[in-house]
Amino acid sequence: MQQISFTGRFLKLTLIGYMFSIMSVAAAIWFASAPALHQMQQDAKRAHLETKASVIASILDNLLNDGEFIARSTEIISYLKGSDSRPGQAQSALLRLPDATNVRLIDTSGQVILAARQDGSSSPFLPVEALEGMAAMLEGRAPAAPRISYRPTGNTYEAQFLITIPILSHGLVEGLLAFERRLDLTHVLRAGADAPQTIIATTFQNSFWEEWHGGAGPSVSTPMPGADFHLIVDTDAQEIQTVGRTLVLTGIGVALLALILPFSLMAASGMRAIVRPHQELERSRRVLAIQQDELAELAQIAELARESISVTDSSERIQWVNQAFTKLTGYSQEEAVGKTPKELLHGPNTDPQTRQVIRRALEAGRPVQAEILNYRKDGTTYWISLGISPLDTSKKSGRRFAAIATDITSAKEAQAKLAEAKAATERQSLQDALTGLPNRRFLDDILETEVTNADPPRTLIRIDLDHFKNVNDTLGHSAGDYVLQQVGTILRMGIRPGDVAVRVGGDEFVILLARGSASSDATQLSERLLARIREEMNFEGKICRVGASFGVASAIGGLIENSDLLKSADSALYTAKELGRNTTTVYTPQLHSIVNEKRLLSAEIEIGLKGREFQPFFQPQFDARTEELVGIEALARWHHPTRGLLVPSQFLRVANQLRLTPEIDRQIFRSGLEAVRKLNAEDLFIPKIAFNMDVHQIANTRIEDIAEAYDIGDTRIAVEVLESVLVEEQDGNFVDRIDSLRRQGFQIEVDDFGSGHASVIGLKHLHPHVMKLDRMLVQPVDTDPTARALVRNMIEMGKALGISVTAEGVETAEHAAIMADLGCDTLQGFYFARPMDFEELRTFAQAACGMRSGQVASFTAHREKRRETR
């Protein structure tokens, strides 16, 4: 019984040991292979994800290029700066953005001043998101760079992007171009039949992705450079478990076959010699250990992997490779074993530095990850992502290493193509497409990187073509393009080695002279170029003639710094235009003094606006027959604290450059209405008050809302616009605005009529209440019969159109009599009264309103007396 009991215990222990051995083999296989499989899966998905990220980055680069091209256009910059008040061309520029929605032009105050393709109902972005980063860019705390924001849509593979691009002028942020674009990325995110599904997620979603999707296993993500979103792909944990389960079952089957014979022999021996159970048990354990070591080293599970796997010894000689290795390299296992990767796979273009990094890691016994170029047996090249890790082993042969390689040749080729395309796009972005010259962006780059920061003193020429608009208007834009191309060729052929000619936009060019060139060199070059530009150009049998004005600025001599070259050359060019065009002006100390004076005046104008130093002066207007007061015109004057009373000719040009004229006009408008209100309250009735306003002021200021704040009774308000509105092309919005003011009781008057080229058609189109004859037409009527005949025809034309006529510049009694005889309705000029401040106007109005019928002579005498006192 004792023997049977001992035999039963022995058999039971043998069976337990048998089962434990099988489970040990299964566990060893699982723990040895699962991390490697997981790592291989992660590496493959990461490489796949980075490839998709590169494709999406290329798509976004194209969107940025389109947006930056529009943001640099002269139509957008001119409209944003207010130098071109017509929104039509800027609107057309915005509409050139392909497939964009909610396109907006935003000024530095954050206001949307122009919009196109609005689709606000379906936009996932808040309006304020387009303004993010503007304050930091304006204050210089952040670079003026584009921003890309992402929002998901209802479709898994569609994405909505918001692109904001800073609009720069002379290096300053003038505003933002913001637009949205919906992209269908199905062909990218679902590329490949066996590829895992890729998800686009915001930065916030990415940070909580694994927490929100914990049941799906860990994820792999990569950020998009320059944008606020990530690409994510989930690791399929179930896939790893399925493969692992198959491996374990295979291992158990092998273990069952491998261990059944030793355990059977051990059991049989024990049964035969029960006295030697412990010896048989030790022998069985040794056999089991040998079998387990052989299974771990063979790593048969690696044959199922798609990645190339090889095992090397401490001397880097290959001991074992899988089938994926032979398929990738073309070498059989027999050809590979005993060779080193350097002997077998490396060639002349394999990077030696990468090879050195791998060698150092192996010598240190640490893992290493690298990308390296290898050669197949047939000599063709391929790229791999290589991961090498040391294997723990107790063998006396020393440390061994497992190398897992993934073929990334396609990804590398795609990256190379994208890099080449990006480089080509970058080259194109620095070149003017029409002339082939470098463009404004190239000039900004070279001024910033070379000239401004580190270069010795340089010399620069600004060029602006004269009469170019006439070519466009008379011969068409094709002729204009031809002229620009010819000028580009003249500049390219005329400059010297080291000089750089640039087209900065429109008909404007810049030449940055080579180092060491002075103003005299620039002047000589300008004269040669001017002679060539003024030569006739034949376009399709039509003669094109243009000229050019040149502005030269040089930092040699210390008058200015390199950073001031562009704006100083602008000042010189502006002076050349004033001197009659087709000439060259150098930025001299005298011009520098004038520029500084203008800068001082600019600061004083802003201070004067804050201190309400701009006030109206009033010039009365009289009935041509009765000489009764019929209205006043409000004229801008500046009560300068040190220079005294200034007229518009002394400050208006600088105010226009600063775009402060509308604010000055608004102050004059308010003060003029307040003056009328006070006079009417004192029973000094003013029949009409007229204000000068430009097109931009009329179109963008709600003057009717301002007027409602002042109770001026029955006094009519007249809006005077320059004659130029009759010859310049005005859009429908301006005409509608004029009609709206007319319906609200405002009178429309055309000022300085006859000073330009106004047509009868333009006069009929605007249909003003009054046209005011320019003083240059009125003054010679007392001595020149031709002038009288011309004025008579203009008055008769006005009468025929139902337009009242006012004559300006009436300085003598003879002027007044002649203009009245010619049929003029209203007279204005020094003969009756000079412009006067409010107190003088009150005294004048008291005298005018005190007249009754038959007192015209006494009023005239009063007027003469006032003139003598002046």
TrEMBL record:
<dbReference type="Pfam" id="PF13426">
    <property type="entry name" value="PAS_9"/>
</dbReference>
<dbReference type="InterPro" id="IPR001633">
    <property type="entry name" value="EAL_dom"/>
</dbReference>
<dbReference type="InterPro" id="IPR035965">
    <property type="entry name" value="PAS-like_dom_sf"/>
</dbReference>
<feature type="domain" description="GGDEF">
    <location>
        <begin position="456"/>
        <end position="589"/>
    </location>
</feature>
<dbReference type="InterPro" id="IPR000014">
    <property type="entry name" value="PAS"/>
</dbReference>
<feature type="transmembrane region" description="Helical">
    <location>
        <begin position="15"/>
        <end position="37"/>
    </location>
</feature>
<dbReference type="InterPro" id="IPR029787">
    <property type="entry name" value="Nucleotide_cyclase"/>
</dbReference>
<dbReference type="InterPro" id="IPR000160">
    <property type="entry name" value="GGDEF_dom"/>
</dbReference>
<dbReference type="Pfam" id="PF00990">
    <property type="entry name" value="GGDEF"/>
</dbReference>
<feature type="domain" description="PAS">
    <location>
        <begin position="294"/>
        <end position="365"/>
    </location>
</feature>
<keyword id="KW-0812">Transmembrane</keyword>
<dbReference type="InterPro" id="IPR035919">
    <property type="entry name" value="EAL_sf"/>
</dbReference>
<dbReference type="InterPro" id="IPR052155">
    <property type="entry name" value="Biofilm_reg_signaling"/>
</dbReference>
<dbReference type="Pfam" id="PF00563">
    <property type="entry name" value="EAL"/>
</dbReference>
<dbReference type="InterPro" id="IPR000700">
    <property type="entry name" value="PAS-assoc_C"/>
</dbReference>
<feature type="domain" description="EAL">
    <location>
        <begin position="598"/>
        <end position="849"/>
    </location>
</feature>
<dbReference type="InterPro" id="IPR043128">
    <property type="entry name" value="Rev_trsase/Diguanyl_cyclase"/>
</dbReference>
<keyword id="KW-1133">Transmembrane helix</keyword>
<dbReference type="InterPro" id="IPR001610">
    <property type="entry name" value="PAC"/>
</dbReference>
<feature type="transmembrane region" description="Helical">
    <location>
        <begin position="247"/>
        <end position="268"/>
    </location>
</feature>
<keyword id="KW-0472">Membrane</keyword>
<feature type="domain" description="PAC">
    <location>
        <begin position="366"/>
        <end position="420"/>
    </location>
</feature>
<protein>
    <submittedName>
        <fullName>EAL domain-containing protein</fullName>
    </submittedName>
</protein>
